[in-house]
Amino acid sequence: MFYLFNFLVLATFAWAVVRDDDREWKTYxxxxxxxxxxxxxxxxxxxxTDGEKESLTLQLKAAKRSGTAIKQAMAPALNRYDRCVTxxxxxxxxxxxxxxxxYKEHPYKAPEVAAHKQHNLVxxxxxxxxxxxxxxxxxxxxxGEVAHWEEPMLTGPYIQATxxxxxxxxxxxxxxxxxxxxxxxxxKLGCVGCHSFNGVGGEISVDLGDIADKPTxxxxxxxxxxxxxxxHGVSALPHHKRSIKNWIExxxxxxxxxxxxxxxxxxxxxxxxxxxxxPPSGMPPFYKELSKEDAxxxxxxxxxxxxxxxxxxxxxxxxxxxxPKFASGVKHGEHVFQKYGCAGCxxxxxxxGRRNFNAKANEQTKxxxxxxxxxxxxxxxxxxxxxxxxxxxxxxxxxxxxxxxxGPVPPLYMPxxxxxxxxxxxxxxxxxxxxxxxxxxxx
Amino acid sequence: xxxxxxxxxxxxxxxxxxxxxxxxxxxxxxxLMKEATNNQLWKSMFRNWPWQDTARHRARHxxxxxxxxxxxxxxxxxxxxxxxxxxxxxxxxxxxxILTVTGVLLMFYYRPTVELAYQDMKDLEFAVSFxxxxxxxxxxxxxxxxxxxxxxxxxxxLTGSYKKPRxxxxxxxxxxxxxxxxxxxxxxxxxxDQLAIWAVTVGTNMAGAxxxxxxxxxxxxxxxxxxxxxxxxxxxxxxTVGANTLLRFYVMHCVLVPLxxxxxxxxxxxxxxxxxxxxxxxxxxxxxLDVWPHLVVREYLMAAACIAFFFFVSVAxxxxxxxxxxxxxxxxxxxAPWYFLxxxxxxxxxxxxxxxxxxxxxxxxxxxxxxxLDTNPKGVGYYTWKERPFANAIFMFGIAMWFILxxxxxxxxxxxxxxxWPWENWLVHKPPPxxxxxxxxxxxxxxxxxxxVLGMAxxxxxxxxxxxxxxNWGYGVFFLVLAAAMKLYxxxxxxxxxxxxxxxxxxxxxxxxxxxxxxxxxxxxxxxVTQSLNLTMMAVLIKMGLRLGLDIKYVLTLPQFNLNV
Lengths: 443, 565
Fold this sequence. Notes:
The complex is a heterodimer.
Chain A: H1 2-21, H2 24-46, H3 50-65, E1 73-75, E2 80-82, H4 114-118, H5 121-124, H6 127-130, H7 139-143, H8 160-166, H9 177-189, E3 196-197, E4 200-201, H10 244-253, H11 256-259, H12 292-303, H13 329-339, H14 343-346, H15 375-378, H16 384-393, H17 423-436
Antiparallel strand pairs in A: 1-2, 3-4
Helix pairs in contact in A: 2-3, 8-12, 9-12, 10-12, 13-17
Chain B: H1 2-5, H2 29-37, H3 40-45, H4 55-63, E1 74-75, H5 77-80, H6 82-85, H7 88-107, H8 117-126, H9 131-158, H10 167-188, H11 194-207, H12 231-236, H13 243-275, E2 289-290, H14 291-316, H15 341-346, H16 352-373, H17 389-411, H18 441-461, H19 468-490, H20 494-518, H21 524-550, E3 557-558, E4 563-564
Antiparallel strand pairs in B: 1-2, 3-4
């Protein structure tokens, strides 16, 4: 017993020692050292001059001598302390002063990247652009797709989100094209009709000015999964996929009626009580109109919307956009239509009203088929004064006609535009609207 | 002292005969030992060298050793049986030591500020050698200590070891238990993640409900309590859990509470020694056994097994760490540390000052009072149910309730604190529970008063012996009539009636039958204290039954006095 128990203590402690010594990053450091030794040895065998040989011999010695240690890039001004270079040694200025190498293999490779040249590691570290968990030293945790880490690494086009955070001029910035396209889509689709950005825009849904900071614990993940829902209607992303980026993107790749179904039938009721039906998300089904790339681009732009201010000397200002000039009042009206996000509900150019759950529409069999008015069809029924009044006063949610009287209040409604659209803008908007109206037959 | 300088007696093993003197041989281990120990340096360090296996030396091993002298030199054979103590007291102390060692090591790497604390957790996990191992050890040993200290209390109770002359030391033990909980609670905040700040928020909010001293407690305005001068404010160093709270909890966790606990542990040990160990003789003429080696070996083995266990757990399982603390994002649900979740569960049934202050206060005071209430001289130093049926039944009933409440709090409460079975997915949206209702004040006063008066009086009024079989049948018939009435007139679902029936039966047995049989001989003071504590415990159970079974929010509600029960 005495020996057995002592042995157990020793064995468990030895296990702890082994586990402590056996760290993932060491494998990668050894791998990098092996590559370096191979490369320098190879170069040495081909070297011609004595000077070359001498320098390469020194390099070889340095490579052989290099110990294993955690390395980090620090940018205190941004509060970034990143240990990424522990494994990605090609980017460690001490190990590889040029920060470029010819290796093909991940994580050793360090290709030439223009953005890396412009963003000094000492000033920016890694995670200010790439995100991820800089303090971590295991593959999974460092790349950040783990439970309880709010900023997983941004890869592919999504990394352009962090360009948007500092570069106010990202619309003209080389390398930020996907984010720019995202911004253009936001304009074209009329997102600002319902959403505002830092207080500018619509009031129907949430402000997107700091959407990238939304805590994932505030999100209801019950209907985010790819698989079929279980017996309770739940299908959720696995924990490590529950990031704000994925949540945003789902709004463009999945039907929002399934993503945020609400409780339109009023099932979620305390026993024996009557309760109000809750409408599903009012967000139109953009997944029908957008390609995968479009969805990624909008997500990228939105992931740039954060309240985490960078120090002013990190911020790149943009020249003010030139005042647009318009050939005619109708053209200006079209601009006004886009500027205030009218397309969000009424469709691009007012050509096709978008979905509004349980709103009354023609030829409707269920609540899902409710739509916003298609302007080209209905404008003709208004006089100019009537239409002006309608835009200025709006239609409150309670006044939107329901398809099913016992169903929920339709989530979308016409806001009061009286304070926002007035004067010349309003008149030109009216000009534009009447110009697109389908001619009604006189009778 | 004379012994110290006495010449070393001859070795008990005579030196081997110099048969092979011709060629030089390697020295044996014995020779080397002799060489190493037979000198002034060694003898100055170890008293009574060389060691001989005599009764005198075995005793001197204990009394001449600073670390061992808290033991007696001899103990009763029963005290050595693992099934008597289960080694729980010793393990509690061992865990205190493990926590001190790992805690001091962790202090080298931990900075108690809002900006750095969480970062240091990440450093411990990813960069510090043995960092995560140390943190795991500290975390799991802390949970282990809470558990083992509670189990130790149960053991001491069941062996009657709190009875005369050990009443005082039992009280010291109860205080040590609360200090253990407080130590664990103050440490809970230090990682500064979401789990930490919200658990501490829940825990400290209960302090804000203290009568008189908390700003949300009854009679707060008598002492002019506001959110920024009450007892919760003192605890937090602010009105919410923030930077000051972190520093306060750090100092309490690392310095203040461990010192007080250490001092009380010394007192506790000293009293164990002075009051003598409680194990009863198996045979009146038995000889006591030497502590060295019998007890010391057992203690060593238990300690080794415990250390091996916690090392294993610490390598295999990582301590939880959630997102960085964010005072603006409240997790749903927010839960206190597990050992306080029983009390948090009570918040469902009672006002915060009752659930979070009054009831825990009564538990601590009630535990301390036990040795003075229990006049039964039997059952000291051995396990017996027959000789102390009432004490054991009521105590174990309370312990079971404590752990069932904790179980409900940990495993059965999901988002919005709605009831989710352990196997249910928290992402499933549940409809809110049905509407609750309260008794009108007159009915509340009547039923509460009736419960108190009848509960106190009935066991004394029925002076004769009650046939339990008949009584239970009686209850059965009464319940059937009641159930039929509830079904017919109330249209109440069957499971609710069953819940009410079972809890009602428990109250009948533990609140009436047991006291009627065992308490009626007690003097007036002891009887009233014991039975009122017992009735309070039963009242908690009844209230749970009424709430879960019949949706009764409050039996008596007097909002003007913050009294809602």
